[in-house]
Amino acid sequence: MYKLKPVSIRVLKMREMYRNTVPKVCTARLKIVTDFYQNNPNITGILKRGLVFKEIAEKTPVLISQGEVVVGSMAATYRGSALFPENDIAWMQVDYDAGKLFNRELDPYIIEEEDWDYIKSVIPYWEKNSLSAMVDQYIPEGYFNAVGNQVTVYNGKNICTAPVGHFCTNYDKAIRKGFGAVKAEAQAKMAEMEGHMSGNMIEQYNFYRSVVIVCDGMITLSKRYAAEAAQQARECTDPARKAELEMMADSLNWIMKNPARTFYEAIQVMMLYQIGLCLHNNMHGISFGRVDQYLSSFYEADLAAGRTTPEKAQEIFDLFALKVAEMNKIWFSGTTLTVTGYTVGQLMTLGGVDKDNNDASNAVTYMMLQTAGRLLLHDPPMSLRIHKNTPAELWEAALETTKICGGVPTFENDDVIIPALMRNGRMDLQSARNYTLIGCVEPAGCGDEWPACGGSGGEAYWNMPMAVLHAINDGHNPMADRYGNITEKRTGANTGYLYEMETFEDVLEAVKTQYQFFLEWQMTMVNMFEVVAAEHMSQPLVSCMMDGCMESGKDVMKGGAKNNSSGVPGVGIGNAVDSLVAIKYMVYDKKLCTGKELLDACLTNWEGKEDLHQFILNKVPHFGNDDEYADEWAAWLLNLFADIVASFTSIRGCKFAPGLYPVATNVLWGLLTPATPDGRRKHEPLSDGISPVQQLDKHGPTALLKSVVHIPQEKYSNGTLLNMKFHPSALSNETGMAKLIALMKTYFNLGGMELQLNVISGETMRKAQENPEEYKDLVVRVAGYSAYFVELFKNCQDDLIRRTEIDL
Amino acid sequence: MSESIVKGKVYDIQGFSVQDGPGIRTTIFLKGCPLSCPWCHSPESQAFRSQLSWISMRCIGVEQCGKCIKACPKGAIKAGNAVKKSGTDEAISYVSIDRSLCDDCGDCTKVCYPGALYLCGEDYTVEELLKRVSKDIPFYDESGGGVTVSGGEALSQAEFTFELLKGLKERKIHTALDTTGFTDPKNIQQVLPYTDLFLYDLKNMDSSQHKIVTGVPNERILDNARRIAEAGGKLQIRVPIIPNFSDSEENIRLTGEFCRSLGDAVVLIQLLPYHDLGIVKYQRIYDDVKVLKAEPPSDEKIMELKKILEDFGLTVTVH
Q1: CB B23 to CB A736 under 8 A?
Q2: Kind and range of the H or E run holding B17
Q3: In a shared domain, residues B41 and B56
Q4: 3-class SS at A593?
Q5: Domain that residue B308 falls in
Q6: Mean of the per-residue pLDDT values for chain A?
Q7: How many structural domains are present in chain B?
Q8: Are strands B235-241 and B266-273 parallel, antiparallel or unpaired?
Q9: Is the pLDDT assigned to residue B1 strictly greater than 60?
């Protein structure tokens, strides 16, 4: 029987502080970066990015809050948010002008008047000097014809966020080797080259030079924290805390330059490196990798030497998780519609196999689940790697955790993911076995891959049903875009109208044409973006630890990592598949309506066509019911999508990787998508992840799972996402749990890649909408992330309630 | 494989059924039952014929649709009064069915696209069902599950149930038969070799009370249970705990004694405390709700009864 261990008072207090602090915008980083950029226009490229980090490390506020043992802060105040003008900051003016900066409904922030005055004063400078502004100059001329299609995603003007995190550098190397050793390595490389550099050796030299600079930065940052701890120790009157602060100062002086010696030091290296990465980058989805694998040997050694106890180690991990939970970033208000709840996606991975394919779980794996279950934290999100030999007690611990903390952890299938990662030349067996999850549910190399999901300036969430609609509407988007503009021009390819297509094969041809057309544009925009970003947003702090970069002398943005990839995720799978099925059934197979009638019904949002609408919803086969008539087209469409994406080449020479996950863009994209042939009305959310359309899976979870394995998931190495919602009564006893495990195992045996659970009733969620205070700590899985339910966008809450609920 | 063309009347097929035997199962519910238990929470299981059902939630109202009114040859469907649609301020006129005129012909269901009107009870061949339930074999295999044939009383459609169970065993699928036990002993003999587990109701050990409340005496039920035990069959006994009928300590003690007398045949006893969740289902096919309304038994009461059975050395679970 799985039991939750007690939580220490200190941890409880820290959690209370976390839950009760409204984040505040801090201008410290903005000021450091603005001054540096304005005063040094002569410093460019990778040196600029190296030196600006050093400047940040030397000047960023150092904050050790009361009772903290694991330290590191993004801002001058607890839970504060830094600002990232190099990407863009003009969105703040846009939000301000729209009345959405102060008192925002979702994810509110405190912003002091004087801080806003300062921010306002530097926006004009950044409007000409941010990556957004630079990228906008390079939009290919032809793309302007396609603007307004609502299929492809391109975050240029004002909101460019890239690289959008979603990578995992080698924390293990940072822990075991230290920045001192890497710095020495880089200096040795430079000494070797000095005075005789031919060809691109100059570029390598510049790379190593910036590595030396950022390593110095990390060591400086750690020593500044050491000094602060020592200062607090001197002033401290409580002897226990005083000793603790002295211990912290000693460790902070030692680590970063030198290899970590203890469990605590290993965690502190991870934490400060994370702070460094986030302060250097535009923090988002920067993932920790296989934390239980890094920490296990330190924990065991500490135990053996009597330096720690399971309780003490658990408390340190709790405090670590709370530090990670505290980190957040103020977003453009539009973005909060898809990523609410101060979510930053600093994912941690647990379990899985080791390099020899044996089970790799250890005591720290369970410690991590204990933290999530006892503290009810949605951040850091956790992903559990499952394989044939995952121990039964780990299954139990994970399911008990997800029952109380929705979607923590997610369940990832090694047996499908490892071979998937080896497809298309992405990585070798050794790297694949050591994979981690990044951001939401994306498999990637752990410390040896630059997967660069987000090359479009954000994630490239590609709207699948919208491309189908273009296919039957001669390449036109019939609906206004997010700015309210209806475009008269053709935004897609010229494929004719549904009523001009004589056979269903003609429809399929049209769909192929539009998918090729829009995916090629997506690839183009991702590549164009990367070319610009690689010049201006070098990543020496990531690269110095990432496998491959020190060897190649190249930054990750230039393809220096051992492995490379570029993800493009599709959204609205259920609606796209059902649209094809409805067209086939109604117009061609049964001839129950004409192509004109069906297309007109979509264009007029089913007005006056309720009969047709009801027939399609209730009498036509739908994906998700183990019905070959429908499922066959899931296989067809998702082979098409995967094969096109996988054929593309990135500027780093690697192939693109297809994915199927929406974060919560299915809700926002739904607002921007007209009615679709599957019976979906205008504005309704798209289907979530690889799930069938909400509530149209009518034959229970086994039929649903049989349907979704028609999707060639093994081709989707950028990840797939399947949410399932269970009523708590289904899992109230051991038999129920055993049956759930069997259900999940069968899905994985049949080729399922990922599964995440909410064990909650719609009724509870409705109550939480009515009495948010009472349900303040209710954690639910939204899509690619979990969040506190009451902090979600209302449409997201409604979408969660509407999803099919499995009970008995 | 049998080439039988016998058809069964099925009112539901439930996937991921986890309460009707071991593992993940599919339960096939056959229509019609010779008993008339007042607490029955599956009113659609009782009659042997197909019945017109109506789910108001699905109806989109006569304002937008109303096709069923024209489709009914008996004039049994009319527009009802306008009411507020649940969760909205919109007014909606649902249809109203005059059950005295309806003969369950089902013509209205053919034009009801939202599926508010549907015929409960559909004819299937054994082959059709086997094809359907075989889809979930991977789940049965992983979980140690299979298929449960339930009712109504499945053995009232004895030939069909026999062919179905036989077909399942030919496909190496674990079988369970959920039965009242009130059937001709030869039906039991026939299905015994193809039934891995009997889910077997013991409602009341007193035959006269049994007759008064359920409409049939219990001698045949008890005899059939003995027959199954003697032939080496396995029994999972289900005891509904119904206030003022089966919830006396005396009845439970007698039940325990009887089970003990069947020896190793009884693998498990499930206590099924009365609940009142069946009421909504009555409204789909009847004008008036005929289900028993009572106070569900307390947890303490159930635990006491469970203890009595456990004292006989029996394994007991509560649902």
Answers
A1: no
A2: strand B7-17
A3: no
A4: coil
A5: 7-49+122-318
A6: 93
A7: 2
A8: parallel
A9: no
